[in-house]
Amino acid sequence: MDRKFPIGKLSLPESYTQKELDQWLDDIALLPERIRKEIQGCSDDILLTPYREDGWTVRQVITHLLDSHINSLVRIKTALTEDNPTIRPYNQDGWIQVDFQFDIPLELTLDMLENTHEMMVRIYESLNENQWERTYINPESGTTFTLAQSAALYAWHSNHHLAHIRLVTQEEKS
Fold first, then answer.
1. pTM for this model (two decimals)
2. Burial profile 127-144: b = 16 or more Cβ within 10 angstroms, e = fewer
3. What is the rounded distance in angstroms from the CA atom of residue 35 to the CA atom of residue 119?
4. Contact 169, 39 (CB under 8 A)
5. Which of 34, 107, 112, 35 is nearest to 71 (CA)?
6. Of residues 78, 80, 50, the one with CA closest to residue 62
7. CB neighbours of 21 closer than 8 A, spacing ≥ 6?
8. pLDDT of 51-102, one tens digit each?
9. Are 76 and 120 in contact (CB under 8 A)?
């Protein structure tokens, strides 16, 4: 199994069906609950275990998901209020270190992840057909994303990192 991309690399759709859109929103909505279930009863040793050599620990993956998805809210809102804006990138590794520098409790991170995902899903569910086609540009990749593609991206991102967490927790359970 490819430990870096356990569910495969992201493939952005050019078009989508309502069924696919519903699945993406379900994946986003359910991520916090799935993470809580996956790490329930895990020791600190497991939470501080990387999913691969030179990879993030389970705890860092959870922190990264919150950081990334908080940024996604800004990206979504920016795309809804500006014409094809260029979004601001952020230093993923640096952001992760901030939580540990200030001893942010995991429970606070999980609560914020739940609230962030609730907001993401509520915004996505409120979009009309035209709003799903609004765009933003990621300057790091040069990719232009529609909001529909952003839903696909963040659903994939959720499942991608949930699979990383499972690599560690499943090894512990076996």
1. 0.95
2. beeebbebbbebeeeeee
3. 18
4. yes
5. 112
6. 50
7. 132, 148, 151
8. 999 999 999 999 999 999 999 999 999 999 999 999 999 999 999 988 888 8
9. yes
